[in-house]
Design a protein that fits this description.
single chain; alpha/beta; 237 residues; Glycerol-3-phosphate (1)-acyltransferase; 7 strands
């Protein structure tokens, strides 16, 4: 049944994206807030399908830590689940992502409408400068910026080096950092087909105030909190 349910979900997800993405292209003329609401409706629909078809739900803890204004989210990255679910959990947001994603027909074109910070990972310092410049503009516009500091999806129980981009953005702009941990990879594997039933726990940590801190100190605090929380989450998954 898990295999069948996963197959049906993937069919629904792909077909709905193929239909919905072209319909969203004309929203480029709309204000960002309205455009985001319309486009992210696709993601919210996937969460409903996951819940009822795959028996995969989620629970959010720590909402009281969310600041009132725009912030920078530094999150664990384990699967495609969080790229979908975060759109139903957090306020209007955009992401720091690899530019190649925007080249995907239909999906990438619709993604571009959400004003992502699309970087060339091989560009080094130039990519960091792009994150600072465009990230500052997004934050000043009230748009949250989501950064996966490990840069790629990692399997449960593993970790990669945390990149500095999100922390540098925080240090340069003074906007608060919100660390986020979750165990989505235990239910939706990073390169897996199956969507296992259960409840993903998403935990929002205490805000890190970047003012007066170096980027190194900011990323260290975020990494320590996230990885410590991951040990707990993966034990209970």
């Amino acid at each position: 049944m898990v295999l069948l349910r996963s197959l049906l979900f993937n069919v629904v997800m792909l077909l709905s994206a193929a239909v919905y993405a072209p319909l969203m292209l004309p929203t480029v003329v709309l204000p960002f807030a309205l455009r985001y609401r319309l486009i992210s409706a696709w993601a919210r629909f996937q969460l409903i399908v996951l819940k009822h078809l795959c028996r995969l739900d989620y629970r959010v803890e720590g909402r009281e830590h969310l600041p009132g204004g725009a912030a920078i989210i530094l999150s664990k990255h384990q699967s495609a689940w969080e790229t979908i679910a975060f759109q139903g959990i957090f306020l209007p947001q955009t992401w720091v992502l690899k530019r190649e994603l925007l080249w995907i027909p239909l999906f990438g074109w619709a993604l571009a409408l959400l004003r992502p910070i699309a970087i060339d990972r091989s560009a080094g310092r130039k990519a960091i400068e792009q994150v600072i410049e465009q990230g500052r503009e997004r934050l000043q516009s009230g748009i949250w910026v989501v950064v996966f500091p490990e840069g790629t999806r990692v399997a449960p129980g593993t970790r990669k080096r945390y990149a500095m981009g999100g922390a540098v953005l925080a240090a340069e702009t003074g906007y608060p950092v919100v660390p986020v941990a979750h165990n989505a990879g235990s239910f939706w594997l990073r390169r897996g087909f199956l969507k296992r039933p259960g409840t993903v726990r998403v935990v929002i940590g205490p805000v890190i105030d970047p003012r007066g801190q170096t980027a190194e100190a900011i990323i260290k605090q975020a990494e320590e909190w996230i990885e410590k929380k991951m040990v707990e989450l993966e034990k209970t998954a």
